[in-house]
UniProtKB/TrEMBL annotation:
Coiled coil: none
Signal peptide: none
Gene3D superfamilies from the UniProt entry: NAD(P)-binding Rossmann-like Domain
Pfam families: NAD_binding_10
Protein name as annotated: NADH-flavin reductase
SUPFAM superfamilies cross-referenced by the UniProt entry: NAD(P)-binding Rossmann-fold domains
InterPro entries: NAD(P)-bd_dom (IPR016040), NAD(P)-bd_dom_sf (IPR036291), Polyketide_Oxido-like (IPR051606)
Residues covered by the NAD(P)-binding domain: 7-198
Taxonomic source organism: Paraoerskovia sediminicola
Amino acid sequence: MKLALIGSTGRTGRHTLAAALDRGHDVTALVRDPAKIPAEARDRVRVVVGDSTDRTTLADLLQGAEAVVSALGPTDKQPDLHTRTARELVGLMTATGPRRFVGVSGAGIDVPGDLKAPKDKAISWLIRTLGGDVVKDKPAEHAVWAASSLDWTLVRPPRLVDGTRSTAPLEHDAHRSTRSTSITRADLGAFLVDVVEQDLYPRTAPFVATPRR
């Protein structure tokens, strides 16, 4: 599959890039600094240099792509980065394709149909109340995708931690929060590729976590 990948040099994105290449996908990666692409991957990806909120850059990224995968992380310098990126992507993808998008949101946002446990509802309320502008970006991004006609998925992980891939199946569900309260970045990166490969959870924001050991 021809994938357009955003955030491929971040702490989760590097695992997404590795998983996509290991599974034989044709990847075009959007980066700000090409030097940050791992040496072993440089000859295996087409690189587009620029910002995820720039329409011309995104148009170049999307050329020939069958799906867009974003592992873009939050940043205090651009607290509305995900919403601005979503708006540009929705406009381009609606007009010229592709129609499939898979990205990362957060377990703290609420969406229609959720069946969160009481403790998870309380945690979500605290995150929304105390998290500042970066936290507000996530539900705003979801609203942009939900209002579109595209086939989007926004994966909602809990706390991100470093670590290796799990050998057990991950916990994931469209609306029920996971028992586990963390996920390794390696597991999340691979799960993003799983979602696009298997066309999981279209127009849904599933929860996912590394199972407790």
